[in-house]
Amino acid sequence: MELQESSDDTAVYCPQVKADLIPKKNQEFQTLEDVKLFYTAYAQEGGFNIRSWTSRKKDGEVVRMEYVCSKEGTSQITGKKRGRNKTREGCKARIAVVKATDGKYTVTIFVEGHSHPLTTPRRKHLLKCHREVTMVHKSLTEQLSAVNVATCKQYDFLGVHSGGLENIGCTQQDIYNYKRDCRNEVKGHDGDMLHEYFLLEKEKKSFFHFQNRS
């Protein structure tokens, strides 16, 4: 991370990444997905998160898209939220692309500098754009849950399996959230699952009967 000063004497933090990862004005991409993947890779290496900010459509087709640092804008902090860290700091770092007549997307705006310190290399794996609960994570946690291994112990196991907590690819909270979503999904279908079970039992056993009550 390189610290510079802007014309108004405010600090500007520039990501230190490989030259081929830095976006350039007039750079072309085949699709919007290519733009997102490229800027995400740049953000991961540079130490910040991104989000889509604006898009403009013409005849149902996106002709302009802008991705910004996740700290773009300002936070409205009141009441219970006062003790939390600010998630928005007015950061101006961004990339904007416009669809050209040949169908490609061209970079028209690229702002490199950030208004805040960037994530250190040792903590880059905690960035949201780095994290994903993969199918391997899901399979292992489901197997460990089946034998009543606590989530914190499951996360330790994933760390050993991955060669270190920094190599897991997600946080312990991500695992908690995944399991919560699974429980909520099952909870919403409990009645249907029980009804299907009874139907199967009725097919297998002639003496088995049940009656729905509303």
From TrEMBL:
Highest taxon in the source lineage: Eukaryota
Cross-referenced Pfam families: FAR1
Protein name: FAR1 domain-containing protein
FAR1 domain segment(s): 38-119
Annotated InterPro entries: FAR1_DNA_bnd_dom
Species of the source: Rubus argutus (Southern blackberry)
